[in-house]
Amino acid sequence: MRLPFGLDQLEDRAREHLSRGAQGYFSDAAYSDAAGLFTTARENEAAWQHWYLRPRVLVDVSEIRTETSILGTPTRMPILAAPCAYNAFAHPDAELAVARATAGVGAIHVVSTAASKPPEEIARAAAADRWFQLYSDIDAGKTDERLRMAEDVGFKAVVLTVDAPVGAPRYHGYPEQGFGPVATANVLDPGLEWGEVERIAKQTDLPLVLKGILHPADAILAVAHGVAGVVVSNHGGRQLDGAIPTAFALPPIVGAVDGQIEVYVDGGVRSARDVMRALALGARAVLIGRPYLWALAIAGEEGVRELFGRLCDELRNAMMLTGQVDVASIDRDIVVPRPGSSYASPER
Length: 348
Ligand SMILES: Cc1cc2nc3c(=O)[nH]c(=O)nc-3n(C[C@H](O)[C@H](O)[C@H](O)COP(=O)(O)O)c2cc1C
Known about the structure:
Number of strands: 12
Largest sheet: 8 strands, parallel
CATH class: Alpha Beta
Oligomer: single chain
Distance between the termini: 40 Å
Bound molecules: flavin mononucleotide
Helix content: 25-40%
Order of helices and strands: HHHEEEEHEHEHEHEHEHEHEHE
C-alpha cells in the first residue's frame, strides 16, 4: 500500500511531495484568499454528507457488479478520472502515469486539453478507451483541429467544458505560461454559446458531453441540442465561487432530463459512500479530480492505480452494506436528505 491508510489523508500526505506552487495550483479554488476560504470547493465535499444512506437489508449480496458502460464505453467501475490540466506538476510521468493506471484498473480517463503531455503520447502509453476534454478556442479552427486530433487518436467521446467562458481569478500557483502544450487561460472563448455546441456536434461523430451544467434549464437545452450526456460540475469550485454544490444541483437535473441522456457528476467526491450517494441520486457515474492528483504526487502510476482500486473495492463493500447488487441500477430511495435540508425530495 503506497497511499495513506485513510484516503482522507491524501491531501496532507501529498503536500510532502509537492512544491508550494503545485500545492497551490491543485488545491486552489476561485477567489480563494490567504485565509483559505474556498467556499464552493469546501461545500462540494460537505454537501454529499447531507444525504444519508438508508440501506436495504436481507438481500443476497454475494454477487456484486461494479462493471457498467458509460455512453457505450465499457468500464469496470462508475468512477472516471476527471480532466485535470498540467499533471506534470504532480509527477514527471504526468498523464502517462494516469493513462496506465486507469487502463490497468479499467476506469475511463478524461484527458484535458491542457494536459502536460501530448494526447498522442497519452494514448500510446496504454491501450484503453478514453475520452477527450475540449476547451473551445476563440479560433474555431483550433477547436476543430482538437476535434480531429481526438478522432485520429481514437478517443471515444468529447467532453466540452462549458463553465469556463473566462477563467476565474485564482490567486495560488498559476502554472507558468507555456508549461503545458496548450495555454488555455488566454484562449478561452467568451463567445461560447449553444450555436457553438451545435457547430461542434456537427464537426464530429463522437458523442458530445457538456461539462459544467448546474441549472436544470441548461440540462433541458442540452437534450434539445442532441448532446449525449452532461457532467453536473462547478469545476471543483475553481470557476464561479458561491456556485451550488453539485450534490444539491444533481437531483433536479436528473429529474429534468428524465432519462433522455446520461448524467454524471463531479466535485468533492472523496469516498465510495459519496459515489453511492451520487449514483442513488441518479448519476450514471462520477468523476474525481484532486484525489488522483494527490495519489499521483505520492506514488505516481502505482498511487493512482491504488486509489481507483481502493475506491472500487470500497464501492463493492458499500453496495453490499446497502443491499445493492448492480451499479447500473442503484435504488433511488437508499438516500434521504438530512432532516431540515431544503433540498428535500419533491424536486427529485
Ligand atoms: C488542478 C486541476 C486542474 C483542472 N483542469 C481542468 C481542465 O483542464 N479542464 C476541465 O474541464 N476541468 C478541469 N478541472 C476540473 C476537474 O475536471 C473537475 O471538475 C474537478 O476537479 C472535480 O472536483 P474535485 O477536484 O473536488 O474532485 C481541473 C481541476 C483541478 C483540481
